[in-house]
Write a structure and sequence with these properties.
Oligomer: single chain
Shape: globular
Number of helices: 18
Structural class: alpha/beta
Number of strands: 6
Helix content: 40-55%
Strand content: 5-15%
Low-confidence stretches: 94-110, 157-174, 176-185
Amino acid sequence: MLGKIVYAGVNNSSFEIGSEDMSRLAEVDVSAKQVERVCQRIGQERVAERNEAVEAYQELSLTERKATPAGVTAPAVAVVGCDGGRMQILDRSGTKVEAEQASDAEDGSTSQHWREDKIGLLMPMKSEVSTSDPCPEIPQCFVDPTRITKLARQLKKVAPPREEAVKETPEPEIGVETLAENIRVYEPPEVLEKRFVGSRVRWPEFGPILARAAWAFGFFGAARQAFIGDGSDNNWTIWRNHFSSFVPILDFIHALSYVFASATAGRPFVEGWRIYEQWIGWVWRGEVAQVIAALAQRQLELGAPSEQDGETSPRQIVAKALTYLQNHQDQMRYAEYRRQGLPITSSYVESAVKQFNQRVKGTEKFWSEPGAEAILQLRADHLSDDQPLDAFWQTRQAKQTGQRPYRKAA
């Protein structure tokens, strides 16, 4: 029965709807508050298990942490990504604590309640290595003015932090699925399985959680490894500290948004679009140095940004794009990634954040810190293809009844 209550509480948009499902589908009356309490209790048990596993992992030697655990088969291709979502945290202990937490929002938000949750995605993949770039010419979907203009609006980064925290970000329409439809000669890697990690801990503490999960699935023993993300410093700090042996890949879609904005800034659209086509073609082929040189020349023409320039000033837009590409140039070797059969977009990770947001994010949803951590852990469990809760329920029941644990038949 506990399993059904947890399922209803985690996979619906609220505990109230979970209570209704229990009544209609299981014919059991369980109040919304009871559903919430059960989810928090079981979620905290899962968090405790996770924390113990992370502590044990950190006690291993560096050699052991980079090896494949006994009994685990390393995937051919291992891909790791992470990003941040949004949820509201309500602390009822006092205004002083709330003020301290508000100043520690990590995302720059001045909101009293909006905070960042951390989402990780681990994907065993399957692909072939090519002797040359299987798709040297940029697909038409990336040089379609209508689509790119819409995509640029979706990924626009000029919203104030508080507004950015509150609004629901739409998923970009150009992702892995669109690539597969538009590129017949290039097959993106096939995702074999998805496993999720979710937590409210700070980024330095999230890194070991994600690394331990990757280790448990044999990712450090994979022949080909990739870490993919957008330009957030948090993502790349985790890569440096825990996944430095993985090939670092900047999401192509985010790079595209900066290239488009800077190419069209301060120019008539027709002229800007012509330059965008040239620049994004260079990026697609991994020739980012040419774009950087062109942007540096454009910055000389416009001049350096001043304090009076707003976020939409061409000088500001070009300066930001130039810095962005310079900082991530070594993570933009897209032709080589395609040759190695590695992904070039983080759309899977962004989709994962959206799946978590569907449960935890909303203007009417407020969570305590323990409740937030519990629901994020359970949401990750339910979204993961390997269904870790199945083993958890077996172990939990065996501990309570004194029965010997038995492995489920394959």
